[in-house]
Amino acid sequence: MPHSPIIEIRDYQMKFGPTTVIADLSFEVHEGETFAFLGSNGSGKTTTIRTLLGIYEPTAGELLVRGRRYSPKMSAMLGYLPEERGLYKKESVLDTMLYFGRLKRMTRPAAERWSRDYLERVGLADKTNVALDKLSGGQQQKIQLGVTIMNDPQLMILDEPTKGFDPVNRRLLMEILEEHQARGATVVLVTHQMEEVERLCDRVILLKDGRRRLYGTVEEIRASHGVPVIDVEFNGSFPKTSRHFEVKQLGKRSAELTLAQGAAPQLVLEELVGYAKLSLTSFQLRQSSLDDIFVALYDEPGRRAQEVAA
Amino acid sequence: MSALGVVFGFELRRTVTKPSFWIRTLAVPALIAAVIVLSYFSSKVSSDTTEQLKTSKFSVQVLDESRLVNPAVLAAVGARRAASKPAGVAAVQHGEVDAFIYYPQDLAGQPAEVYAADAGLVDNAKYQAMASSLVQASLSAKLGSPAEVKLLQAGVSTKLTTYKDGAETKGFGRVVAPGLFLVLFYAVIVLLGNQMLTSTTEEKENRVVEMILTSVSATHLIWGKIWALIVLGVIQVLAILVPVLVAYFGFRSQLKLPAFDLTQVSLAPGPILAGLALFVGGFMVFTAMLVAIGSAVPTAKEAGGYFGAAIIAMFIPFYALGAVATSPHQLIVQVLSFFPLSAPITLMLRNAVGNVSAAELLAGIAIIFVTGFVLMGVAVRTFRYGSLEYARKLGLKEIFTRRV
């Protein structure tokens, strides 16, 4: 059932006092997909997740998990890694994992077996009875990750999952994510890492100022909001103005060209080849990346202001 | 097991398995025991020394102008009569005699004067002990009975029997059982207050609350913590009481502890039930208040600042103890009796001394329980919302207006 929703959000509004944080937000996350939740800081992503998980009460609208409002009784199906995260520093590794396992409705023996297997896997089997504050930051991150995925949850919500993670743990996280994707878990990634989104995610939603701005598969979004971009490498200098393209210099010998409305790449190439002060060494056409689309969308007011001024 | 049970088990186990809990718990009775042992030995050594000093031998001359000292008593200690006061003093100064005691004519109004060879700060007391004991022995001989002398010295002890509605009342014994709840309440607050305050700041400071709240409701989390605190309180009280009871009932004579007539303790159900209700309600109010404070502020350090104010609000009736015990109808006592934060201790005090009516008790208990439930709701609400405010303090307006 690739299209049955595990998360449904309908007409969700959130106000904190007179401030509207989220306005009329609706979207679905399908069972078994990996879904990216994008937006700049303060766009309302974490608030939406907290409301979905019953920590906040919505001002209006419905936020459902498997057709019901989420309650802690459903914690067995959830693996949640919040943006603000930590553990009981003075408790031992095993006691902490057992506590979270028991709260996720695991039996004590099952939680203990799972914890020991995980600690073995991440090379912390000898730290079972060590207090968490005696572990290094990287080791604590591994435990945090373990606590999140205990009980092999059907729905994983990871808010900025790689934030603060060292490269080793980032790789571990990606491995674990891929394993859980493979076994059919639904993953919601709240992230700023567009490469990860393009590599891992099936569909995407992008919030701006509490409103939905983009929603669909990665391909749909790139097709509808992306523009052709030309990556060039060169020697010399570009013409000061052109009616076919805009130049964004990336380095001394590389640049990104955005095509003007109606301009064909061939015209650009002809213009550059004919310009005496420039010698091209590479010319590659591509569709703009999610990162480009994200930046362009957030840059809209600035761009509009520039257009008005011009 | 329910989520509440998991929280309860976790909170209880992680506290009782920490050595610091037992050090904290046992430090109080250990210090009290140490003080008792020290004062017992100090008093014994002092008493033995005084006895030794009384019987220590030294040469002495006496001049008795009061005529109260019996010559036979003087002869028994080998004291010689001095010719005059200057002669006696000179004899000491020239080392002819160890001490000279001069009893003035009006011994009741003037001190006996003792002149002696310096034997050191402690040993010098033997001269004064000799001066006193010579007079006491002489008076004893005059009265003819040691019992009369004892009565004269220690006064008469009395035993009071009172009646109410024709039945004998227990006097001080009626204070004991309801008063015990006051002692327990004080002990629990002193021992657990800080733990109550920091039980929720810990989640916030460690940034663990958001993960927890998706697995257990705020209500279950807080009640799990409170039940654990109650059981920890019982463990602490038992840890203090059991050694005391074992010492009293097992080794009372060896330790020379005073005997209490337990048959004099009143076990009337009314005051005991009222004391229990006040204890439970007071505990609820205090716990809810501390949990709410802990949830509203970002760190345990900041919560500590409010702890002092909360303690003063609860224990302020002790500063008006005289009025509470003797003038229950004074306005201040009435205010303290029905103001929710001061009511538990005021009414426990009044219940113990027996100056509170049934109507006042019922009204006070109702106020305390209603306040307790309201504060508990505020604590849960503050925890749900305030615990996600990691860096700032939550205002009262936000607690009551923001949707969580």
SSE layout and pairing:
The complex is a heterodimer of chains A (310) and B (404).
Chain A: E1 5-16, E2 19-30, E3 34-39, H1 45-52, E4 60-65, E5 78-81, H2 93-103, H3 108-121, H4 137-149, E6 155-159, H5 167-182, E7 186-190, H6 194-200, E8 203-208, E9 211-217, H7 218-225, E10 228-236, E11 245-249, E12 254-259, H8 265-274, E13 278-287, H9 290-298, H10 300-309
Parallel strand pairs in A: 3-7, 3-8, 5-6, 6-7
Antiparallel strand pairs in A: 1-2, 1-4, 8-9, 10-12, 10-13, 11-12
Helix pairs in contact in A: 2-3, 4-5
Chain B: H1 3-16, H2 19-55, E1 60-64, H3 71-76, E2 80-81, H4 85-93, E3 99-103, E4 113-116, H5 125-143, H6 146-154, E5 162-164, E6 167-169, H7 173-205, H8 209-213, H9 218-255, H10 269-296, H11 300-315, H12 321-326, H13 331-338, H14 343-353, H15 358-386, H16 396-401
Parallel strand pairs in B: 1-2, 1-3
Antiparallel strand pairs in B: 3-4, 5-6
Protein model, in words:
The complex is a heterodimer of chains A (310) and B (404). Chain A has 310 residues and is α/β, with parallel strands linked by helices. Helices cover 34% and strands 30% of the residues of chain A. Chain A starts with a strand and ends with a helix. Residues 304-310 of chain A have low confidence and may be disordered. Chain B is mainly alpha-helical and 404 residues long. Chain B contains 16 helices and 6 strands. In chain B, helix 3 (71-76) links the parallel strand 1 and strand 2 (80-81). The mean pLDDT of chain B is 82. The A-B interface holds A 16-17, 50, 53-59, 70-72, 75, 78, 80-82, 84-91, 95, 99-100, 102-104, 147-148 and B 1, 3, 6-7, 10, 13-14, 202, 206-208, 210-217, 220, 384, 388, 390, 401-404.
